[in-house]
Amino acid sequence: MDRDFLEAFDALPFGGYGASAYGKRWRITKSRFADARSQKLEAEELGGNGHVSMNLYRLATGHALLKPCEMSEEIVREFVLEVRPD
């Protein structure tokens, strides 16, 4: 997993909040489970059809495993690098 993506993902706060990406408004929810070894990000474009959903698993080896939900890794990576919380 590339460092830029993980740094951008880790910088996103947990909980629900508004954000901007691609010149549009989004509602973000970032959750953690299993002592933060499993994390979920869901994003819905406000007033549009945009949707981003992913899970990130922190492995015992120190690596991270990205699992997008019904979309490509590229879409998820680009979104996480682009999104700016309020």
Quick structural summary:
The mean pLDDT is 96. The chain is built from 2 helices and 6 strands.
Class by alpha and beta content:
alpha+beta
Structural domain count: 1
Count of individual beta strands: 6
Beta content comes to over 45%
Q: Radius of gyration over alpha carbons?
A: 12 Å
- pLDDT < 50 stretches: none
Tell me the series of helices and strands, N- to C-terminal. Answer: HEEEEEHE
| Dominant shape | globular
User: For this entry, what is the oligomeric state of its chains?
Assistant: single chain
Secondary structure: helix percent: 10-25%
Please report the number of helical segments. 2
Please describe the biggest sheet, giving its number of strands, its sense, and whether it closes into a barrel. 6 strands, antiparallel
Q: Termini separation (Å)? A: 26 Å
Tell me the strand order in the biggest sheet.
Answer: 5-4-3-2-1-6
Let me know the average pLDDT: 96
Question: Which keywords apply here?
Answer:
alpha+beta, 86 residues, six-stranded antiparallel beta sheet, 2 helices, single chain, globular
Topology:
Blueprint: H1 3-11, E1 15-21, E2 24-33, E3 38-45, E4 51-58, E5 64-68, H2 73-82, E6 84-85
Descriptive account of the structure:
- The protein is of the alpha+beta class.
- It has one domain.
- The chain is built from 2 helices and 6 strands; from the N terminus they run H-E-E-E-E-E-H-E.
- Strands 5-4-3-2-1-6 form a 6-stranded antiparallel beta sheet, covered by helices on one side.
- A hairpin with a 4-residue loop joins strand 2 and strand 3 (38-45).
- The model has no long low-confidence stretch (mean pLDDT 96).
